[in-house]
Amino acid sequence: MRFAKIKQMLLIPFAALLMLVALAMPGQAQAASKKTYIIGTDQTFKPFEIQDKDGTYNGKNPGIDIEILREIAKHENFKYELKIMSFNADVQALQSGQIDGMIAGMSVTEERKKTIDFSNSYYTDGVCLAVAEDSKITSMKDLKGKTVNVKTGTTSAIYAKSIQKKYGFKLKYYTNSNTSWADVKAGNADACFDDGPSLRYGIANGTGLRIVGKQVSNAPLAFAVKKGENQELLKMFNDGLAWLKKTGRLKKIVNKYTSKKVVKSQVVADTSILGLIKDNAGALLQGLWMTIELSIVGILAALVFGLILGIMGIAEHKFWHGLANVIIYIFRGIPMMVLAFFIYIGMPTLLGHKLPLFTAGILTLMLDEGAYIGAIVRGGFESVDVGQWEAARSLGLPYYKALWKVVAPQGFKLMIPSLVNQFIITLKDTSILSAIGVMDLTQTGANLIAQNFQGFKMWLIIAVMYLIIITLLTWLSNYIQKKMQH
Q1: Which pairing describes strands 224-226 and 147-151: parallel, antiparallel, or unpaired?
Q2: Domain containing 299 — which CATH number?
Q3: Same domain, yes or no, for 11 and 103?
Q4: Measured distance CA(392)–CA(121) in Å, rounded
Q5: What are φ and ψ of residue 396, in 5° steps?
Q6: Cα–Cα distances in Å, from 2 out to 5, 380, 402?
Q7: Structure confidence by residue, pLDDT tens digits, 254-281
Q8: Could you say which of 30, 279, 443, 460 has the lowest number of CB atoms within 10 Å?
Q9: Per residue in 242-252, pLDDT tens?
Q10: How far apart are CA 437 and CA 254, in angstroms?
């Protein structure tokens, strides 16, 4: 009877896991019936992707890639949903089947052709070297011993790696261009390799950099799908692209962002802290709500999972005790970012279905934070005097009744401070999920900085918002703790 009760409780987190995974199924069927394709694109890659102040590509000037996709989808009569992530995450999502296609200024290379099918090219791109305006670097020969930034997974990173030994510089990797450029401007790096048109566009909008030398490593850009899959989508893109070229629309789109009279980024008139808050209030509130939503659902899921692990950890049967130790060891040992990528990009390969982004985020929080909560719960129960167990059992109480009626109430009081601290850590850890494209407060801040180049002020605003949330959560937790102790 005792073990049957424990087994029933152990099924709770795994049932919850299956329910979360099942959420992906209806969305997959619906997408297929309506011919709505999931298209991955970059977070910030001007002039190919230019987000509006709300962090979307719904504006009049969304960039070369988005305008091309928008025109082709309209002409070929298919729908699409954009999935905004870092370039490297987009490539991994494409190869794992999480997205149907990708348009993010991707260069066609022989290496990528092994796993990706490309459309016909819509633009020829290249790599440039950029330095701060006051830098003394005038050629690649001056890079010896210097630190050079690149964007992970891009052609510029591949090119920089190929000449690194020749010129003797150190490489530093970033997930987006804006952060890489800001690092050079701030003097933390000496130079950066990046896409030529993107650098020229950024310089025209006040990044404070200048290009050194000529554009090199020119390569065609194209739309991409996973090799052997989504061939219908690829054909529609090629047909639409041929129509754009024939009608002159493609040239018009490209010139709009690459000629001397390029479309400018959104200009922020008031760059004071209050001005930035007022101008970006909508986006900040959306990011804040996503952070709160992730925190609440994630904490609840982690609490259930951790509670089960804690009970397993003190079970009399050695099997459950050992299983709990293994689970806690695994998920505490895996970095949360690695776990997030595995769940969002790796699990679909095993399941054969896509995972919604929010679901992947909650699963990540549940497994990672739940492992820590499991250790806390186990420790709290073990901290209760063994005499309490003996007294309860001597009165004839079964194991599970002795746990819930005698030991658990005392154990929870002992573990409250640690649980409160773990809840706060969970809230802060939601920012890690921005790596897989979750539009939380951190990701929102990164997108806004890409538009207004006010890095210090925007991160200060984001930091204060996190501090306010954590302070309110701490006050609430302290209030609950006092109530339970009386």
Answers
A1: unpaired
A2: 1.10.3720.10
A3: no
A4: 75
A5: 95, 10
A6: 5, 21, 11
A7: 988 887 665 555 555 567 888 888 888 8
A8: 30
A9: 999 999 999 99
A10: 27
Q: For residues 104 and 101, what is the distance between their CA atoms, to the nearest angstrom?
A: 10
The 8 Å CB, 24+ separation contacts for 326-331 are: 327/371, 327/374, 328/371, 328/374, 328/375, 330/371, 331/367, 331/368, 331/370, 331/371
Please give the span between the terminal C-alpha atoms of the chain, in angstroms, as a whole number: 34
Residue 23 lies in a domain: no
Q: Are residues 115 and 63 in the same domain?
A: yes
Phi, psi dihedral angles at 439 (to 5 degrees): -85, 65
Position with higher pLDDT, 31 vs 200: 200
Do 142 and 136 form a contact (C-beta atoms < 8 A)?
Answer: yes
Judgement on whether residues 377 and 452 belong to the same structural domain of the protein: yes
Average pLDDT over residues 89-109: 89
| CATH at 106 | 3.40.190.10
C-beta separation of 80 from 38 below 8 A = yes
**φ and ψ at residue 96, rounded to 5 degrees:** -90, -5
**What crossing angle do the helices spanning 455-485 and 441-452 adopt, rounded to 10°?**
160
Domain presence at residue 27: no
- Please give the residue that has the higher pLDDT: either 272 or 158: 158
The CB density around residue 74, as the number of other CB atoms within 10 Å, is 11
In whole angstroms, how far apart are CA 461 and each of 186, 284, 343, 445?
A: 20, 9, 31, 9
Q: How many domains does the chain have?
A: 3
Instruction: Say if CB 457 and CB 278 are below 8 A apart.
Output: no
Beta-carbon-side half-sphere exposure of residue 162 (alpha carbons within 13 Å): 10
- Check: CB of residue 189 under 8 Å from CB of residue 195: no
Instruction: Please write the tens of the pLDDT for every residue from 409-439.
Output: 776 777 777 888 888 888 889 988 887 778 8
- 150's enclosing H/E stretch is strand 147-151
Tokens standing for residue 367: 């497994």
C-alpha span between 478 and 455 (Å, rounded): 34
Which among 421, 419, 431, 418 is positioned nearest to 462, based on CA atoms?
431
**Which domain, by its residues, includes 150?**
125-219
